[in-house]
Amino acid sequence: MEKKRVFEGVKVVDFTQAATGPLATKYLADNGATVIHIESRVRPDVARVSGPFKDNVSDPDMSAWFPNWSTNKLGITLNMSFPEAKEILWKLIMWGDVLVESFSPGVMGRWGVGYEGVREKRPDIVYVSTCQMGQYGPWSQFRGYGTHGAFFAGFPELIGWPDRLPSWFYVPHNDWVSVRTLAVALIGALAYRRKTGRGQHIDQAQMEAASHLLAPVLMDYAVNCRIQTRDGNRLPGAAPHSAYPCRGHERWVAIAVTTDEEWQAFCKVIGEPSWTKDPKFSTLLARKENEDDLNALVGEWTIDFLAEEVMAKMQAAGVPAGVVQTNEDLFKDPQLRHRGHWVVMEHPRIGPYSFDAAAFKLSKTPMELKTPGPVLGQHNDYVYREILGMCDEQIEDCLVKGVFE
Amino acid sequence: MDEQWERDSLLGGYRVLDLADQKGLLCGKILADFGADVVKVERPGGDPARRLGPFYKDIPHPEKSLFWFAYNLNKRSITLDIETIDGREIFKRLVKTADFVIESFPAGHMQELGLGYPELEKINPGLVMVSISPFGQTGPYSQYKVNDMILWALGGMMFISGDSDRPPVQVTFPQAYLHAGSESAVGAMIAHYYRELTGEGQYVDVSAQECVLWGTWQIQNSWEMNQIIRERGSHQGLRRGTGVYISNPSVWACKDGYVYGGMGGGALAAARVSAENLTKWMAETGEAGELADYDWSQWSSLTITQEEITPKHRLVEAFLAKRTKREIFEEGLKRRIAFNPICNAKDVVESPQFAARGFFVEVEHPELGATLTYCGPWLKLSETPLTVRRRPPLIGEHNEEIYKEELGLTDQQLVNLKRASVI
Hints:
Chain A is α/β, with parallel strands linked by helices.
């Protein structure tokens, strides 16, 4: 008999887009919940229009992101400009245990499904709102993605070089941290509801979640009036500590030496060149004083080797070192393969490609990737007919009018 | 009062034994914030994370680390050396009444001590044990030595961070272990929910590398689909083929700092609307120059030349240089111009948005004779709000409460344990 999955029987109405909302509900979908993800052809999800596209075909069903972010979910399309759509949304709300939305504050209210209204009919529902700034406040109408949020939370100030403008780390960073605490709150609220029968409203400002990842920096300002700023790859108490150039185009290895033992082992690996005995480099304090020169000298050694070779030699000697991996390296990484991180699934339009497994392994209830994120409206028929019990006439009527766009 | 508070929180009444150091502190902090009774188990003399700065008034001291404070608010503390025989026995006694154990030792270490999940499960079948290690408990890299930056590198975030003409960078305030800690909390909660259903605990094996890797989601499929290697420097310009840049920076200096905003148009509707609205604003004070006549729908990221971009960039640069971050953002909100301030710590702490939501909270530290400002609730819950219940603990502050009152150890036993450096 197949073991019951953790969230089996939990019903989630997922009215989110981009990353934070969909990724939070993904934890539930991957562990057995029935998650219905609502989209619209007239308002395509940024995850569908941003690529990367298979064969560079710019089509909302050919983007590799979306299916990766909405695994195991049912997908429907619904155009909220129709009164029929609002009725259908209410049917879904009456069906669900959880409703998650990521619209700008007020949008759900204008559709007649704000928390207060929903609570009257479903006091037990767990209603989750997530957006950049939260449901109220002077900046709550700011429409942004995680990229923008990261600027507000203070990250770019801490990325890059002291002699340059703030730099960047490419990705919508805020999303990843907001996802996790949203999932914790959502699962906790579900457990609470199981015990008490009570639902509640969860209001997340993604910026607030992100700020926690810089909490000591913020406290440094609040307490010591210091504004911390970027400093390349330097770390107090460690030297050498940076990324060093290796053989080939844009190949780098990160090396971190903290203890005397590591320093001595490091010197041995690089062949005990005379500069390592120079008083300029023989103590930690001296190395911190002369860190630019130190980094140049280390780079002169690493440049003759492959990044993988440097990592192997250093690790064998007990010195922390790692290849600065590209997205290509990640696919070939033997440790990730060992963990089974890349799971190949067949997508109806894209064909087979690699999806991410979870970063944690649960010993008794492992998560399962069964289906890729749906193509647009893939489960319209199943959801409208089987789950919501709409009859043929209603469905036909909606189709003709464009309610299911 | 305790019961009431427990009823009104999501994890009230659940006990966590938090053995993690900075490699996993955030996991226990999150559970504590959601109401759990998190007991930080420190080695005698204090957890190594207490050596990390910044420090209160820049005084390096184990009871003054702001890093420690930030990630141990709401926890209690006992000292215990689980490397000793007596320490392990005491730990097992504590496990009997624990709901979660979190640890961040090197892979396999707890097993070596006889405190692996199979042993602890026998003592308490309902226990959820979370192990946070750099690469997971097994595998070719599982014994590799790392630090935060090395994980950032092996997880794929470092390569895409920084300026294109300088080495890849970490975040100056390292993030990898915070990613690991927060992801671990989700694993813990899924296991917790399962335990609520069935009474059975389980083991949660977290790979910090995979936690970092999840943060790169927008880049990895690029290689598999189109053999494109994502590189750093997207904020500096438009890439035309490998290593070829048309400089079009999105980071601008303004009167009191920096703002971020892309200059673009054409098919990128949002960028075009923003650029048009910016041009309108510039024209109001006669600062638009040639932009007043420019049709932004003409812009094509694929074909625009450096000669066409540079003069436009200069005009916008000059305009922004005269205005403050706040001005640019607030006008931007009104006029639908997508420029936001690149905030520093001061901007964040003094942000009116955070103030309106009461995000920052004041916590008293009687020992310091001061009240310190902390990041507050992760989010707002209408029935079970997140609260601050206690300031971060002093080293072993709750030894008496736990050892004497709970375990019934006598004063003499505690003296023995103290002398032997078990506690």
